[in-house]
Amino acid sequence: MVYKSVSPSQTKRIGESLARKLLRSSSKKALIVTLEGDLGGGKTTFLQGFAKGLRVKKKILSPTFVIMKKFLIPRGGTFRYFYHIDCYRIKGPEEILTLGFKEITSNPENIVAIEWADRIKKILPKEKVSLKFQFVNKNNRKIIINFKDD
Ligand code: ADP
Ligand code: MG
């Protein structure tokens, strides 16, 4: 699926509707959402809408020093926690593994969104929702959503 966004708020709305849709699903492991693409492409902006769709109360920021943040999903059915991981500043997959990545991604209570997921490709589960963000011009972005199982 390809979406065109002409504003940050539209990007947030696309994120919000994906979250609502995913909340109605269930899986045997954590639900993984990967976000790749240009700096300033809208990954964090998208996740602000996504978190709203999950009814997460706290604000999603671009984590400057924090690699991983955990949020409570209220009334999320089988889902209880939302993890926001940003791999922009990490040196390699080991850094993420030491934070308990395997346990977090195995637990079906978790929804895990990973920015700059291409930096930890080696350790990513096969089943995931994969998002690509392309910078078109100042206010326009292309967002490509793929449901992967390979
Ligand atoms: P990333 O996390 O991919 O580096 P951010 O979401 O942090 O990107 O930043 C995107 C920037 O681009 C923000 O400053 C936002 O206001 C701006 N922007 C302009 N148009 C859009 C759009 N259509 N969608 C998302 N962000 C947009
Ligand atoms: Mg970001």
Task: Provide a descriptive summary of the structure in words.
This protein is of the alpha/beta class and 150 residues long. It has 4 helices and 7 strands. It has helices at 8-23, 43-53, 93-97, 101-106, and strands spanning 2-5, 31-37, 68-72, 81-86, 110-115, 127-137, 140-149. A 7-stranded mixed β-sheet has the order 1-7-6-2-5-4-3. A hairpin with a 2-residue loop joins strand 6 (127-137) and strand 7. The longest helix has 16 residues, at 8-23. The radius of gyration is 14 Å and the shape is globular. It starts with a strand and ends with a strand. 35% of the residues are buried. Magnesium ion is lined by residues 43-44, 62, 115.
Main attributes of the structure:
150 residues; alpha/beta; 7 strands; 25% helix; binds adenosine-5'-diphosphate; binds magnesium ion
Shape: globular
The distinct bound ligands, ions and cofactors come out as: adenosine-5'-diphosphate, magnesium ion
- Radius of gyration over all CA atoms, rounded: 14 Å
Largest sheet: 7 strands, mixed
Q: Terminal Cα separation, in Å?
A: 17 Å
Strand percentage: 25-35%
Number of helices: 4
Helical proportion, percent range: 25-40%
Mean pLDDT: 94
Derived from helix and strand composition plus strand pairing, the structural class reads: alpha/beta
Describe the strand arrangement of the main beta sheet, using strand numbers. Answer: 1-7-6-2-5-4-3
Report the count of strand segments: 7
Helix/strand order: EHEHEEHHEEE
In terms of quaternary structure, what is this?
single chain
Spans where pLDDT lies below 50 across 5 or more residues: none
